[in-house]
Each structure stands twice: as structure tokens, then as C-alpha cells.
Amino acid sequence: MSRKNGTNARQFRPSCLPGRPTVARMKQASRSISPAQAVALLLCGTACALLNPARAQADAPSPMTPMLARHVQAVALDNVGAPRGARVELELGPLDPRLKLAPCERIEPFVPTGMRLWGKSRIGLRCMAGPVAWKVYLPVTVKVFGQALVAAGPLQAGAELTVLDLRYAEVDLGTFNTPAFTDANRLAGRVLTRALAAGEPVRGEALRTRQWFGAGEIVTLTAMGRGFAVSSEGQALSPGMEGQPVRVRTENGRIVTGLPVGARRVEIGL
């Protein structure tokens, strides 16, 4: 072959080859690929999608079709449990891109047991009709906007709240670790443990815990049921701290657990 022909041969080399395959490269590839793939390596080089798992994975179809996304949103909204009049916003996150899911003709969304769809959460997807039964979880962000009490102006740590320190505003209730406050009278007299900026929601964790009674004190027990309430007396076996269950010994010696709700008052739900 003449030098000119050799030059032409180099010019017609397939453009996807990064370089001429060496014997060492062919031997290394043969350990992990089939003979047919080895031929493909000679023709196309290592950039071929057949030999590129990352590209093959990226090209895999996603199970999240627009119809499935709407179904997921409907199931999630039905299980948010938002208070009356609240405005709900739902944002679906992406599935883990590393997942390799088998094709499925019918995918059903579900809410995991014990999962509360507030704030950062997740909703499940499971294949109900396919060659492989799989189950994955989709991240969701649920924002529940409702009216709650916020600071009317800047408030310092240690300040004792008054009704004039508070105002109503729409806030994202999904970010609260405890229920939002909607009754200003319940906050009057409470002491802040940290400063609040103007417009910042008043959260339970920013309030000093109140002690309604001490251990050994006689308290009024109120058993609350649907449409009725029964009251009796008992002796507190531990201090009555707001928001923390307390054990009380009744007059007949029975020990019950309730929630302190006021000065020497304990409520028991039925």
C-alpha cells in the first residue's frame, strides 16, 4: 500500500474511535463484554451507548408520566389533612436517577403507613401489573398555608406576650413541629425563650414551658367524650408541665394518664 493510500485510510477512520484499539484494550474489554460487543468496540469505540452504562441508564424511560403525576397529586392531596380554609401547595420531587425499574403497565401511588404529608415527606409508587413487582418512594414537599398568630413587631427573648404583640397572617403550617396558635388569649402571658422577628410565627418551641401544678397536688380530672364530660379529682404523681402527659392517681386508686390544660386541671381523652 502506498503512503497516499495509507493517508486516505487514516482519513476514513470512524469518527467515534478515540484512537486505534490496542491489543491490551481488547483483552481488558473481553473480560467483561460479549464477543459481539467486542466487535462493536472495534467499530465504535468506548463511547458507544452499548458500552456506556451511564448513558444507557439516562436513556431509560421514566415511569413518571403526566397522567401518573396527576394521580400522585390527587392521592397526596386527599391525605394531607389540611385544616378547613387552608391552601395547599404540592411539589413532586424526582425519582432517584440510579433506579432501574422494569416496565409496568399500572403504577399505583400510596401513602406509607404512619407518614404525614406535611413539609418534606414522601409518597410511594408500586407496580401492580408488570414482569417485576417493584416499590419505590417519591419525595414530595407539601406546603399548607393557613391563618396563624405571628409577632406584630420585633420581640425580645424573655418578653411576656400580650394580645397587642400578636397579629394574624398566612403562614406555612407544614413547617411547624407543633400545632399553630390561632387564639391570642392562649398566648397572653406566655414568655418567649428566644427573640422573634416581625411577622415570624409564634411556635410552641419558642415559648417557656408552663408548670400548671406540682407533684402531689390535688387536680381536677376531666374525661372528655363526644358530647359529654365527666369530672373527678385525683393526686398528681409528677409535675404538670404544659404539653407533657402526666400520671394521676384517682380517688379509687386507679392510675390514669392525661394532659395538663390549666391550673390544677388535667384532661383525659376517651
How do you describe this structure in short?
The protein has 270 residues and is an alpha+beta fold.
Provide a descriptive summary of the structure in words:
- Helices cover 19% and strands 32% of the residues.
- The chain has 270 residues and is α+β, with helices and mostly antiparallel strands.
- The chain has three domains: 3-59, no CATH class; 60-208, Antifreeze-like/N-acetylneuraminic acid synthase C-terminal domain (Type Iii Antifreeze Protein Isoform Hplc 12); 211-269, SH3 type barrels (Roll), CATH 2.30.30.760.
- The chain is extended.
> For the CA atoms, what is the radius of gyration?
33 Å
CATH architecture of the largest domain: Alpha-Beta Complex
> What does the overall shape look like?
extended
Specify the number of helices. 6
As for the CATH topology of the largest domain, it is: Type Iii Antifreeze Protein Isoform Hplc 12
Number of domains: 3
Let me know the largest β-sheet. 5 strands, antiparallel
Question: What's the β-strand tally?
Answer: 12
Helix proportion = 10-25%
Mean pLDDT: 80
